[in-house]
Model the fold of this input.
Amino acid sequence: MLITLALGVTLIVLLFARDVSRSAHGAANPQRSENRSFAALANTLLTKENSFNGRLDQLLAQGTTLSRAVFAARLNQLDQELSNWITAADQLRRPGLDHHVNETLYRITLTRVAAYQTLLGDVANALGLPWSTVPVVVVINPVATLENLDQQWNVDRFALVKEPGFVHLDTTNSSSASYYAAHGLTALVQAPNLALVRAISIGAVRVSPAPLPAPTGDLLLPPVGLVQLGVSVVNASYDDQPVTLTIRVTPLNNRGVAFAQTLKTTLGPLGAYAFVPKLIHTAASERARVVVTLSGAPAASGKVTAETYQMEMSPSGNS
Done:
């Protein structure tokens, strides 16, 4: 009787153990899949972050060999990547995983983005480069923050090693922050090819109606009552450059009326702009001096910031 009872209890225990094992196995399969999928996507993000760090490290170390425009372009390219990290990390927050590792990755990524944005802004400001990015979070000391984040992540990244899937998450590297802390920006700021050299010029002057054939500097026009000028200006420096264009028309033979207009704008880095002044009232047989002056910075090499023309209107066919 006791033997039969013992066998019955043993059978119940075995059946219960089998059911528990099947239940646990069934629960582990989706969890293992979730952990491995998260790890694959998270490591892709971490690889991008480490690649970013390597390129920033190289830019800080070798930036003195680049032109101002090329350096600025590469700095902007790095800056534009950062917001994508936040999007990628946010997409990994669900479903929630053991030890909240995906939420931890999101918070660390958010802070890392803000620290890098602050650091890039410091570089741009030191060189006087145009910069508009505002960090997602204010970071007082981006270098220390990036180094601390590396240490924190180097602990948190092992959260899933013993969970279903036994996944490993990659480490992060902020060697660029260490380089910044050790060397600063002195070499970049003192590099002649990165220095801000302001330079502008008059690109072209267009006259409507089109002038008749005449020597250079002379505007021989048909006897019309209105003349339209168009003046294109160029910013030869990599910086935002305010400019002022002044046009003066002074009659020389008591025909026509004097004209003056001042126009202003701000040219973007290496940018150009076309000014279209008001119509100029003219008279048949008028002779006048037209002076176009651009101010705001020195003339670019081989270019001019002032043009003077002798304008002559043809006689009217009725005179």
Notes: The helical segments are 2-62, 68-91, 101-127, 142-156, 175-183, 186-190.
